[in-house]
What does this fold into?
Amino acid sequence: MKLALKVIGGIALAIAILVGVLLWRTSQFGAKADTQAEIALPKPPAFDVAAAAEMLGAAIRIQTVTYASGDPKPGADQPWTDLEAALRARYPTVFAKMTMEKILTHAMLMTWTGSDPSLPPVILMAHQDVVPVNPGTDADWTHGPFGGVVADGYIWGRGAMDDKGSLIAILEAGEALAKSNWTPRRTVIFAFGHDEEVSGAGAQAIYALLKSRSVTPAMVLDEGYAVLDKYPLTGKPAALIGVAEKGYISLQITATTEGGHSSRPPRESGAIRIARALVALEDKQMPANLSAPPFNQMIEAIAADLPFTTRLAFANQWLLGSFIADQVSGDASANAIVRTTTAPTMMTGSIKDNVLPQRASAVVNFRIHPNDSIASVTQHVKDVTAHIEGLTVAPYEGGIGSEPSPVSSMDSEAYRVLEAVARSTGGGAVPVAPALVIGATDARYASAISKDAIYRFAPAIYDDADLNGFHGTNERLSVENLGRMITGYAQIMMALGS
It folds into this structure.
């Protein structure tokens, strides 16, 4: 009996110690207090947000739509010419202050030379083109997709958020600063690509040019994240600053067989081999990593707003890591942040219902986590499908390939300025967290000139209805958000450029 009591007591003590360790680690988990003085943001010059809203509406009415790599085609590029003319007319002072270079005909590289050329420049980015509107959906819009209507506190239309809102806000901020006789000490550069939605050739050429000039920036800022009114992990506001973005590659898996009549099918046709390959890739995903940046820093930054059980789990990954990984993997949005994703998108086979294909293939799209690379993804596919005879794996012909970006510094003056702007945009008390952008932006090309100073953030507050407009129906930007963006971009230029 005494032995049993000792065993029970020992177990109880072990459990108590374990619980104590779990609770202590949970209490210590989260962003540590910042001992550095918070950056005081400068007051921007006055601007007319109503007039800016009308200008954004006018820009929306100019239909700079891109459909495929190489757009706009010669002879179909009048909208880009019209947009530049409209911008020059609206912002004469900033165009007079800045040197304009046209890259690949329509991409704009604008340079406001600072008084101290030894300081690395600040680069603000946006893009001029927009995605198409799905045919037959015009009537689903509250206001026409290219009407540029200002109504009910919003500017409505394709490009309002992605990305003409940023384009207009940056130029509005620049114009207000130029009219106020502000002069930058640090050079300020605007980089406005013309084809981000299809290939980003304009931005790629801009950064190739800057690289040839040995430009190394203090900061590059592009679209990507903002202040979210309701962050899914917490249900509360959070400001996310993109410090990295995923890479991109599509691989084509092909099975070549004899084909023949469907009345005499072999046990393993080409189509079956492709199906087996896709199932194998679905079952054996690229590994998730919950401790890799920027995911771990993001979780720590928002820890105070996490539900207790979630915070406990993340604080004690040494014990609960596999459980968390399983939970994260079951949510599409969370899964995309912690691993390279695997998405079969295109399949081809026979041209007739009773003919076995001689060549069956599938295209699988991978969005590559910064832990991985095009080479490691390709090897993963080959390894996972090695047990299936007769397969070849190669990059999808005509597809694009880009490596994941480097993870930028979260311990720099540029990031601290962005933190201050993000916190101010969110009302002062919002947590600010680094994050991984799962899509592709023109900023990926900036890695040609910087490895640790590329960020993706717009000083705006978006709710679910706003986010649903990205590439969708009823894209819109609130006039209030446009004002926030103008203010934020002006403060960034003043804080870093003065």
Notes: The domain at 249-402 is CATH 3.30.70.360 (Alpha-Beta Plaits).
